[in-house]
Specification:
With 380 residues, the chain is of the alpha+beta class. Helices cover 32% and strands 28% of the residues.
Length: 380
Amino acid sequence: MTPEQLERFISLRHELHSAPELSGAEGATAARVAEILQAYAPDQVLTGIGGHGVAAVFLGGEAGPTLAIRCELDALPIPEETNLSYASQVAGKAHLCGHDGHMVMVLAVAEALAERRPQRGRVVLIFQPAEETGEGAIAYRSDPKFAEIPPDMVLSLHNLPGLAMGAVSLPTGPANCASRGARIALFGRTSHAAAPQDGVSPAPVLAQLMQDLATLGAGGDLDEDYALTTVTHAKLGEPTFGVAPGKAELWVTLRTVTDEKMQSLSDALVSKVATLAADYGLRHEITYHDVFEACRNAPEAVSVIEDACLTGGVPITLSERPQAFSEDFGQFGKSAQAAMFWLGAGENHPQLHNPDYDFPDTLIPIGSGIFLRAIRSVLG
């Protein structure tokens, strides 16, 4: 990538950064991406995949496999605190996970493919919506339009603060934890605060659950037995002094390395809530939200990424330890060889989802270069 190209892609990244859109509402971002892709004259541009998803198809000269490169479109509902000249212009929303940078790296791949197509097969560039809610990859893969371009292999990356700038960490097995949010609603009966005995308060059960659920998953080593429960929100009654509460809510995030462990953890939570609610004469409901299945890298795809890093002189470490945070990229592994790697954003860089996070522009040629070498390796 020439200095002029890099400056152009940096400018584009800043443009996308300043106009963030949340999961499921990425219409303008998707339209801008599709507009840029059209300028690179791909053989096909598909839009509206799984919501606002986009795909660009570049054909090789001969028959061969299909290799897909995936990135994300969505931003976060977090106010940005950076004072950058290109900071978010949308109140309460910001690209604080680096999806703006991921998009630009894949657009740089598109530009390179416009100049030099693969020898065989085809490349599909995937711009996926709604990663942050765990809904995007499922909707994208379920869309009939995706069935027109089924990939044999899918590669993706995520920038990672805490890892040396430009270095790669590549999981050889489990890559991301499974997670889900459990919303527990408890229903009793209100009463006058002067006569709480005439009602049924969920307060004792709420207090007990906040303690007991923590014992179901205490974290520890990221192995097959790993389980973590994190209380993220609690509400009891209404903000008034005259009414003893009749309703409570508890939000808990469950996290495991494997989907099997997630099922057992969820079962334990359901049993605990049901037992306590019955003991205190409460009705209860449990619903699940932001459901992410575990993500596991396929050996063949891992080998392709490893070779692409080594041939480009990118420092790489193979890891058997997954990331604790979740990713819906694992959905693509259900129908293709799939692998995700972590690209270092700097050891002292603000963490993902921090209000002062910003994607490092120096990663643009590194990430796009790894993808391009992977494409040349698989497709010639």
